[in-house]
Amino acid sequence: MIQRMKDQNPRVPVRPHSLLFVGVVACSLSVPTAAADVISFDAGAGTLTRHQFLNNYSWAETGFTVFGGITQRPDDEFWPDNGTQFWRVAVYYGPAILTSDTGGPFDVVSIDLAEYSAVVNPNRDIEMTGVLQNGSTVTFIHSLDAVIDGSGPDPDFETVVLPETFRGLTEFRIENDIVSLDNILVVPAAPTALVLIGALLPIKRRRFR
Ligand SMILES: [Ca+2]
Ligand SMILES: [Ca+2]
Ligand SMILES: [Ca+2]
Fold first, then answer.
1. 95 CA to centre of ligand 2 in angstroms
2. Which residues surround ligand 3, an ion (CB under 5 A)?
3. Ligand 2 geometric centre to CA of 79 (Å)
4. What pLDDT does residue 9 have?
């Protein structure tokens, strides 16, 4: 009956909540893909903080913080080398834990990994863990290639692409206590329709009260 009345009279007013729904759908469809960030651990790109009580360090860069490790840029045949400063996790620092400073979910797309050193168990398996928003975890294990000659010409670091399951994380961990890492490619999660509804509700109250 209502539909018929609208057909007969095109001037039937549209209800405010209908406008809200259309707005939410339109905004949801037009949300741009969040920009990717690279945590480089490079000098000047972030901030290293020493936590005296825990005798540990954290690194803050591009809205993310990595806890458990220390920056390093050696230049010899013993430690891995990619020409830049990287993050070294040791027995007394690990595990490395990555979180977003906003507390919001994020994706981990890839990470550069290298052996801890040329002489310490170079071909060990590196276990990575993601904590999802519902508290469950996903894991991925990568076996290092054992290619490491420090300042020599061999590529000590290798880029590891994480599986699709490492999306929408609240925390990313590297459980091993000895490993070198660099260039973590992260993508903050885009706003969801529910977030947009929350943002639009005040507008609705102002316009249609
Ligand atoms: Ca670096
Ligand atoms: Ca090398
Ligand atoms: Ca290597």
1. 24
2. 114, 145, 147-148, 156
3. 9
4. 44
CATH of residue 93's domain is 2.60.120
The verdict on residue 175 lying in a domain is yes
The more confident residue out of 31 and 37 is 37
Structural domain range at position 125: 37-188
pTM of the model: 0.77
Residue with tokens 């993310």: 64
- For residue 103, count other CB atoms closer than 10 A to its CB: 7
pLDDT of residue 33: 59
The answer to whether position 21 is within a domain reads no
CA of 21 to the centre of ligand 1 (A): 45
Q: Contact, 159 vs 183, CB < 8 A? A: yes
Residue 9 lies in a domain: no
